[in-house]
Amino acid sequence: TERTLALIKPDGVRRGLTGEIVRRIEAKGYTLVRLELREATPELLAEHYEEHHGKPFYEPLVEFMLSGPVVAMVLEGERCIEGFRSLAGATDPTAAAPGTIRGDLGRDWGLKVQQNLVHGSDAPETAEREIGIWFPER
Ligand code: GTP
Ligand code: MG
Q1: Burial code of 6-42, b = ≥16 C-beta within 10 A, e = fewer?
Q2: Fewer CB atoms near the end CB (10 Å): N or C, the chain?
Q3: How many folded domains does the chain comprise?
Q4: pLDDT in tens, 2-61
Q5: pTM (2 d.p.)
Q6: 36/34 Cα distance (integer angstroms)
Q7: Rounded (5°) CA angle 15-18-23
Q8: Is the ipTM here above 0.95?
Q9: Residue 74, Cβ neighbours under 10 Å: how many?
């Protein structure tokens, strides 16, 4: 079985959607191996978003991720990396399909960065890397 790092971003926590998002993860059958309300730090985010350094949305993205607590989770289940991204839906909440977290609950706020409620690792190597960043004791 596989593990992935999932985050409920500050917009999801602020809007009181933590329960709804966790409900969808559990209903899908993924196991919550870790779940913590956390404050990100600039150092942690620099590692987490390493691939986005230098992109135009990088600074606003980090600022957004520091705007409030996030829920950091490690999920476990068969093909949960692909499966959680499928639950999350497309990056742009307007384009995300109905039935997905972003499609059902996200909206376009007309801001510099997409506030799209959740993050999910996108490949086995990034999942291991990101789990190590958020839960270094593992
Ligand atoms: P994550 O699960 O959060 O990693 O989303 P993703 O894999 O669907 O997107 P990606 O890793 O490409 O980008 C990380 C985050 O940066 C996104 O979730 C958005 O919040 C933001 N972002 C990415 N691309 C854009 C963009 O083109 N414009 C804007 N405004 N924000 C973006
Ligand atoms: Mg990504």
Answers
A1: bbbbbbbbeeebbeebbebbeeeebeeebeeeeebee
A2: N
A3: 1
A4: 999 999 999 999 999 999 999 999 999 999 999 999 999 999 999 999 999 999 999 999
A5: 0.95
A6: 7
A7: 135
A8: no
A9: 23
The CATH number for 62's domain is 3.30.70.141
Question: Which of 48, 52, 53, 119 is flagged as catalytic?
Answer: 119
Distance between Cα 56 and ligand 2 center (Å):
15
The residue among 94, 105, 85, 92 whose CA lies nearest residue 19 is 105
Identify whether 119 is a catalytic site residue: yes
Of 3, 67, 17, 58, the closest CA to residue 39 belongs to 67
Look up the domain containing 18 and give its range: 2-134
- Nearest CA to 118 among 103, 128, 134? 103
User: Residue written as tokens 């972003």?
Assistant: 102
Tell me how far apart the alpha carbons of residues 114 and 106 are, in angstroms, rounded to a whole number: 9
